[in-house]
Amino acid sequence: MLLTGPDIASPRPAGRYLVGMPMWMWVNQSPTTYGPNSASASLAGVTVTATAKVTRIDWQMGDGTTVTCQGPGTTYTASYGKRESPTCGHTYSRTSAAQPGGKYPVTAIATWTVNWQATGGETGQFTETRQSQQLLAIGELQVVR
Question: What is the predicted pLDDT for the residue at 142?
Fold first, then answer.
């Protein structure tokens, strides 16, 4: 069973975000990046079936803030305007200009919960973590009159 880090989504993959504007965080869901993902294996008459699903994502935002989200987040569309995400978001209070390359390193750490069951009724659960990273430019907009 292949479990990978989150597939980080972005409405502006190559764009710049702004200080003070709510940022929406979400992930694209697939069996290997979010789950559910199931697999079975047999040996010597015993079959074990495991099902894995991401149960939380901790987002390290690069500015010292960590945001914990219990689900995949809500996909942003332009119709939401400048509202905050109802499920997973962050608002930067300073630019990324002082960071290496002028960008914050954002790390999404997925906690996978794996439930397993063996022939004969034995069951168990364990967790695994996987992570992905994205660089994010945060700029500042000033109005000149």
Answer: 76
Q: Which tokens go with 78?
A: 């332009």
- In the chain, the largest separation of any two C-alpha atoms, in whole Å, equals 78
pLDDT value at position 88?
A: 95
Residue 33 falls in which region: left (phi positive, over 0), alpha (psi -120 to 50) or beta: alpha
pLDDT, position 17: 86
Q: Residue 47's pLDDT is what? A: 96
* Residue pair 50/39 in contact by the 8 Å Cβ criterion: yes
Q: Record the tokens describing residue 30, joined without a space.
A: 């697939």
Select from 120, 115, 116, 114 the least CA-distant residue to 45.
120
- Give the residues of the chain that fall short of pLDDT 70: 11-15
1 within some domain: no
78-96 pLDDT tens trace:
899 899 999 999 999 999 9
* The dihedral formed by the CA atoms of 26, 52, 37 and 122, expressed in degrees to the nearest 10: -160
Give me the half-sphere count of Cα atoms (radius 13 Å) on the Cβ side of residue 12.
11
Q: Give how many domains the chain has, as a whole number.
A: 1
Q: Is residue 45 part of a domain?
A: yes
For residue 13, what are the domain limits? 7-139
